[in-house]
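Table S2 (text version). Query chain:
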Amino acid sequence: MYKILLVEDDQETAELVKKALELEEMTVDIAIDGQDGFEHFQKNEYDLVLLDLEMPKMNGEELVIKIRNINPYIDIIVYTNYSRYADIKKLVNLGINGYINKGPEADLRELIDIIKSKLEPLTEDEMKTLINGTDIMKAD
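Corresponding structure-token output:
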């Protein structure tokens, strides 16, 4: 079973996303702001972090930096209404693994599908493609 950290200051949104992920047999911890999210992350093991950007106490960008300092490999997906291109580009450079708009046109099923795709292991073909594309595995 996968364990997700959901960092979201809007309680209604957090509960809706949590219920949807639990229907997919995932365990979800909710943090109500960036500082709470960081404390959860320090105390627990997670497979993926889903976070908002605009939060009290510590914003999503600051949280991404702190998480990356502890674990450079965990998947981080930003789920927010905040969508300025320059800011998203900066987040990508900080190491996020996905961005989903949670605005009025947001699709909860799309969110679940993206999370599942990040968590599911690579297929044998995907592993071969990845290995064949790296220089360290190529014979001279």
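Notes on Table S2: Residues 136-140 have pLDDT under 50 and may be disordered. Residues 3-137 form a domain with the Rossmann fold fold (CATH 3.40.50.2300).
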